[in-house]
Amino acid sequence: MKTAELRQAFLDFFKKQGHAIVPSSSLVPADDPTLLFTNAGMNQFKDVFLGREDRDYTRATTSQKCVRAGGKHNDLENVGYTARHHTFFEMLGNFSFGDYFKREAINFAWTFLTGKENLGLPEEKLWVTVYASDDEAFDIWNQEIGVPAERIIRIGDNKGAPYASDNFWQMGDTGPCGPCTEIFYDHGPDVAGGPPGSPEEDGDRYIEIWNVVFMQYNRQADGEMLPLPKPSVDTGMGLERITAVLQGVHSNYEIDLMQALLKAASDILGGVPTTEASLRVVADHIRSCAFLIADGVMPSNEGRGFVLRRIIRRAARHGNKLGATKPFFYRLTNALVELMGDAYPQLVSSQKQIEKILLQEEEQFAKTLDNGLRLLEQDLAQLKGTEIPGETIFTLYDTYGFPVDLTNDIARERGLTLDYEGYEKAMERQREMARGASKFGIDYNAAGMKFEGKTEFTGYEHIDGHEKIRTVVV
Ligand code: ATP
Ligand code: MG
Ligand code: MG
Ligand code: MG
């Protein structure tokens, strides 16, 4: 089954069960300052869950565009390293607004995955987790569905646990949340990794495909959990992950859609093997960048635009690593539009704009990329130990426009770490200077800082909880 067919099969299945098919909402959340980008199917229904908004249906199904780069669910640094994470992906979901609850939600999921007339997956390959104290969900899985107790794992809030799972889903620091039950697919002993809840679970053998959340609370800023007006259901299944299962491949990057993008990227970059990790980064990033621009995000030095800029620069750096000597990323837009334009016509109408913006960004960054990399190489040649000094990170950011996560990406490839504290100190020094400068009207350069006319201070911003100085590379 092709990716596009699977998307349709999911929506059709839930339509048959009385769900309204609702279009994906924008990647830029409407009127929700608590959220950087749309990160789950439930976002557009947040007010319905909270009882603030009524719709003319109580069951809905969607294929939702999601971006997880920055914010609470941030997968940017996983991309290229795991088989299952993208910055942009589609989340298939079914929702109940005070209609059905645990029993039906679990039954729907199981029927879609294993039903002979549906996906027909072998039951013994599926593992499930439930929230540690949720006996009701455990019993439904075990006694009604018939999943053996050894393949049902109880997982709690992950407070200090040595594994990554956390069976209490929340959209952000505030908002609708609740205990969940997750379904995993075992890709077999050829792939490294342990079952959910084990210390090895971060491998890619047992891959989480579907998360079924029993929405019961509205989390307040002070942590208090108020009950929702009606218990509801929110589910999310990664389209690319379930497609991988159906296509008999283990990695999301091996499905038809991603292979076509990898092939297009390889052609543009002069035949780089499609198995290169950097090529995966490039093929992944074109989707988030193009879809974000189509939804109106522009590269900038703050907020959403800065995240977009960081993703573009990361793609440019990986292209450079693969030998690109001139802008290449924007040229991938065409392949993406051909692959996904039918499902998302907005991509087609925005193609020219996407190409123009990406090209501009690539050209701008190309001016400093080589020099920044050279500086980094010089510093690394003299490096004692395995930590890149804060001054270097700061100069790369401030003078050469390397966002910190980009420097970290390079460091990780070489088994090095970053001196974040030193970086923050360097940042703080510049901040002091800027404050002094504005107070006494002193020219930055005259204050003895190494600006070299390349950056311009434009204020402060908050990204991922860190205050960062805003500069424009000119
Ligand atoms: P993981 O533990 O693998 O990071 P998650 O628990 O963070 O996934 P959820 O928030 O439960 O993911 O999202 C629902 C579903 O969306 C997941 O079960 C998975 O199929 C899919 N998904 C989540 N993050 C990504 C991603 N970065 N790329 C592709 N699919 C994803
Ligand atoms: Mg995750
Ligand atoms: Mg998970
Ligand atoms: Mg999950």
From TrEMBL:
Keywords: Aminoacyl-tRNA synthetase, ATP-binding, Coiled coil, Cytoplasm, Ligase, Metal-binding, Nucleotide-binding, Protein biosynthesis, RNA-binding, tRNA-binding, Zinc. The keyword RNA-binding applies. GO terms for biological process: alanyl-tRNA aminoacylation; negative regulation of DNA-templated transcription. It is found in: Cytoplasm. Binds 1 zinc ion per subunit. GO terms for molecular function: alanine-tRNA ligase activity; aminoacyl-tRNA deacylase activity; ATP binding; tRNA binding; zinc ion binding. It is an enzyme of class 6 (ligase). Residues 1-474 form the Alanyl-transfer RNA synthetases family profile domain. Its cofactor is Zn(2+). Consists of three domains; the N-terminal catalytic domain, the editing domain and the C-terminal C-Ala domain. The editing domain removes incorrectly charged amino acids, while the C-Ala domain, along with tRNA(Ala), serves as a bridge to cooperatively bring together the editing and aminoacylation centers thus stimulating deacylation of misacylated tRNAs. Catalyzes the attachment of alanine to tRNA(Ala) in a two-step reaction: alanine is first activated by ATP to form Ala-AMP and then transferred to the acceptor end of tRNA(Ala). Also edits incorrectly charged Ser-tRNA(Ala) and Gly-tRNA(Ala) via its editing domain. This is Alanine--tRNA ligase. It comes from Marinobacter confluentis. The lineage of its organism: Bacteria, Pseudomonadati, Pseudomonadota, Gammaproteobacteria, Pseudomonadales. The chain holds residues 1 to 474 of 876 of the full protein.
